[in-house]
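task queued by scheduler; priority normal; single chain, no ligands, no partner chains; default sampling; output format set to structure tokens
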Amino acid sequence: MSKKNNTAGILAGLLAGAAAGVILGMLYAPEEGKETRKKIKTKANDLKDQAKNKYGEVSEKVRDQYGNISSTFKETANSVANTVKDGYDKYKDQIVSKTADVVKNVESELNDLK
């Protein structure tokens, strides 16, 4: 998770730096104010679109990873549950068998005492 947060921070920093660079470059360019504002607006919209696209890509990757992790967790949980159930069934049968043997032995001993 730390690596993903770091990557998101780096991406945000790069986008902010690019936006600041574009805006400063346009403000210092020798053009009319109206034209400069138009260029700034266009570049801001371009950067906004790029940010939306990156957000969509990252969101999709996160959803895919969540799906993979969720599937793996379910498979592992099912495997553990099956192992526990198999162990329970195995020992349950042994206990029932041993209990039946003990009951038979006790009954036999009681009959011998009569």
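post-processing summary
- DSSP finds two helices and no strands in the chain.
- The helical segments are 2-27, 33-113.
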